[in-house]
Amino acid sequence: MEPVVIVGSGLAGLTTAWALAPQPCVLITSGPLTGGAASMWAQGGVAAALGADDRPTLHAQDTFVAGARYGDRQVIDRITAAAPDVVRELARLGVPFDRTPSGDFDLALEGGHGRHRVAHAGDHSGATITRVMAGLVADLPSVTVREFSTAVSLATHAGRITGVDVRDERTGLVEHLPTDRVVLATGGVGGLFAHTTNPITATGRGVALAARIGARTDDLHLVQFHPTALDVGADPMPLLTEALRGAGAVLLADGRRFVDELQPRDIVAAAVWEQLTEGRRVVLDAREIADVTTRFPSVTTLAAEHGLDIATDLLPVRPALHFSMGGITTDAAARTSVPGLWAVGECSRTGLHGANRLASNSLLEAVVTGQAAAASADAFDGTWPVRAGADPDSVVASSDSQHDPAVLAAVRETLDTYCGVLRDAEGLQLAVDRLAPLTGTSDAAYVGWLIARSALAHPLSVGAHRRTDEPVLAVSA
Question: Which residues form the FAD-dependent oxidoreductase 2 FAD-binding domain (predicted)?
Answer without folding.
Answer: 4-363
